[in-house]
Amino acid sequence: IRVIWTTTPDHLSWNLTGAVLESHVDSDDIATTVAFGGDKLGVLWSDQSIDATWTFGFRYHRDADPPDAWQALEIIADGSAVDDHINMKTDASGRLYFTGKDLYNRIHLYVREAAGGWRLAAANLNAGNATRPVVQVDEAQDAIHVFYTDWIDSPNPIKQVTAPRATLVF
To answer: DSSP for 117-165?
Structure first.
């Protein structure tokens, strides 16, 4: 997982060497980014490599730090047969919400508080029949929505589950 960045205000020149955040991922793995907390950029990825510990990993960069300075690896889920279907959002407080699929087609929701520390907030939101989850933060309704494709039913409908942000009980 490599990040690169522009080196000029007009964004025409780039540091293509960048910084490597993780080097033991499979070619099928995927990453996503999110700006959060007003001054940070986070990168989250799946790791399904042959020697994988089956993890979702996360690192972040503070805007005030040099471009190649990234905070230590945070393991979100370890040994949980992760898959490469991921999506992440933030709310105004800097809390992160991450939804991911495992190899058993179950959708899980993880939360990282603004001060740090990931936790599994809700497991198996879909009874094991889903793919491509997307999380949405609805601050106006103080809710979290998770959308996913149900690939058991035909013609593969998009389904939604919703929970209050305070409880995350879906």
So the answer is: -EEEEE--TTSS-EEEEEEEEETTTTEEEEEEEESSSTT--EEEEEEET
Say how far apart CA 69 and CA 46 lie, in whole Å. 21
Strands (E), the chain: 2-6, 14-20, 31-36, 40-47, 55-62, 74-78, 82-90, 96-102, 107-112, 118-122, 130-138, 143-150, 158-164
Residue 154 has what pLDDT?
Answer: 83
Would you state the pLDDT for residue 97?
A: 98
pTM, rounded to two decimals? 0.92
Q: Is the dihedral of CA 152, 103, 122, 143 positive or negative?
A: negative
A 10 A CB-CB count for 34 gives 19
pLDDT along the chain (170 residues), means of 10: 95 96 87 97 88 84 96 87 90 96 91 96 87 96 96 88 96
- Selection from 95, 3, 94, 103 nearest residue 45 by Cα: 3
Is the bond into 67 cis (omega within 30 degrees of 0)?
A: no
d(CA 78, CA 65): 28
How many whole angstroms separate alpha carbon 35 and alpha carbon 138? Answer: 17
Quick one: which of 101, 163, 156 has its CA closest to 136? Answer: 163
